């Protein structure tokens, strides 16, 4: 199953006005709970998740480098990367013209325009030469690639990464590739319908695809326990959202409010889904 790029872009354009309810800094992902990011402070958990991904890239901040944010949303993590790695140029890719425009404006406002840039394009057809990128990351965006293995996403990332280049993916993955049944299938399908996803990836096929694409040093860290506290913020935000009359009447905005709730329900089905940080090195 494949999600059409125009459908995804249109969804993000229409739901854009609701993202600030989740994060004033425009982080469009779940958070990471830690000693410096407690369960009640969603903003800190969201930023901590971005830094967990950037740390896993294992980069030397003193060296010039080129980084890609594969599915950058409104560019919050792209800008964090540019600030953390002052010699780097970080380029964010998004299917949404609205997101690219707003992310660019925020980059200018933050004084990072020279090193944090954005383009409306697909990460399945990256406009970069082979072996030209030092590292790439994807935060809850690889799930939009087709198939359980997300192989097209992986092969395109492998094409543009230099030998020794790092890829880090933060996302929810199914714990097995068997057909889902019962409540697991109901919640998964409802989640995908509302977030315009083809399907969630399955962890083992994803790791196998990384190996087949020429990646080594492949590791998958289950951080579901760390992510859980931020997911528990979802029911409260959903309840608040559904009191908004304009939102209730707008099917796209209503989907945007309900999708995270289905993500929470799916997470409660035993042995079905987990949240992982996956990292690998291009051979």
Tell me the domain tally: 1
Query: What composes the largest sheet?
Result: 8 strands, mixed
The proportion of residues in beta strands is: 15-25%
Note the total helix count: 12
Helicity level: 40-55%
Layout of secondary structure:
Layout: H1 5-15, H2 19-22, H3 42-56, E1 65-70, H4 76-84, E2 88-94, H5 97-109, E3 116-120, E4 133-139, H6 151-160, E5 161-174, H7 182-195, E6 201-202, H8 203-212, E7 215-222, H9 224-231, H10 234-242, H11 245-249, H12 251-267, E8 273-282
Parallel strand pairs: 1-2, 1-4, 2-3, 4-5, 5-6
Antiparallel strand pairs: 5-8, 7-8
Descriptive overview:
By secondary structure, the protein is α/β, with parallel strands linked by helices. Helices cover 44% and strands 21% of the residues. It has a single domain, classed as 3-Layer(aba) Sandwich (Rossmann fold), CATH 3.40.50. It has twelve helices and eight strands. Strands 1, 2, 3, 4, 5, 6, 7 and 8 form an eight-stranded mixed sheet that branches. Helix 6 links the parallel strand 4 (133-139) and strand 5 (161-174). Helix 7 runs antiparallel to helix 12 (251-267). The model has no long low-confidence stretch (mean pLDDT 93).
Q: Can you tag this structure with a few keywords?
A:
283 residues; alpha/beta; Rossmann fold; eight-stranded mixed β-sheet; 8 strands; 21% strand
Briefly summarize what is shown:
By secondary structure, the protein is an alpha/beta fold. 44% of the residues lie in helices and 21% in strands. The chain has a single domain, classed as Rossmann fold.
